[in-house]
Amino acid sequence: MKKIGIISLFGYNNYGNRLQLYAVQQVYKNLGYDSEIIKYIHPTTKDPLPIRVKVFVHYVLNLRTNLAVATLKNLRIRNFKKHALKFYKESANFADPLKIDAKFHENYSFFSVGSDQVWGWFNADIAEFVFLKFAPRAKRLAFAPSFGSAKIDQKYRKVFSEGLNGFNTISVREKSGAQLVEKFTGKEAVVLCDPTMCLSREEWLAFSSTHQEKPKAKYILTYFLGEKNGEVNNILSKYSKDYKVVELNNLEVSKYYAINPSEWVDYINGATLFLTDSFHGVVFSILMHTPFAVYKRVGGESMQTRITHILEKFSLQDRFEINAENEGLFSMNFHGISDIVEMEKQNALDFLRESLIFDTTKYNDFKI
Question: pTM of whole model > 0.85?
Answer without folding.
Answer: yes
